[in-house]
Amino acid sequence: MTEFEKMQRGLPYCPADEELTLFRYAARRLCQQFNRLDPEDTASLAVVTTKLFARIGDNVEIDAPFFCHYGMNIHLGSNVSVGPNCTILDGAHVSIGDNVSIGPNVGIYTTRHRVLPLDIARGECESSQDVIIGNNVIIEGNTVIKAGAAIGEGVVIEAGSVVDADIEPFSIVAGNPAAVVRRLQ
Q1: Can you give the pTM of this predicted structure?
Q2: d(Cα 160, Cα 52) in Å, to the nearest integer?
C-alpha cells in the first residue's frame, strides 16, 4: 500500500514520502498563484480553484491568502464564503456544504501527529481523519476544527472556538473545547 493510500484510509503514513511531497508542492504552487491573483480576475481565479479543489460549487468566494496541503481532498459546496488566512490541512477529505460562511484565520486540520515512538521510528508520523461541515453553517474567525469532527446543519461556531468532536445540527457552540451554548430549534 502506498503512503497516499494509507493517508486516504486514515492509517498512519509518512508525510515525507516522495509522492505526497510532490502533491503538496503542486498544491502550494496553486495556492501561491491564487494568492497573487487580482480578486476581480474571476476567470483566472476559477481556473486555479478548479485545478486545486476536488469539487467547487457555484458562487464560492475565497479571500486571499488561502493555504492547503493537497487541495485534491477538499469539496466545496455552493454559496461558500471563506475569509482570509484560512488554512486547510487536507490529508483526509474535507467536505464543506452549501451556504457556509468561514471567517478569517480559520484552521481546518484533518491531520494528527502520531505520538507513539514506534510509529515515529517507522516514519509513520501522521494519520488523517475526515472533516465534514454541513449546510447553512457559520464558522466565525480564529476557529480551529480538528480531525474527525462532523458539524451538523445550521451550526454556528463562535469566534475562537476549538472543535474536536461532532456538533449536533442547529446548535451554537463556543469555547475550547467547543461546547453547545444554545440550541436553535
Answers
A1: 0.93
A2: 27
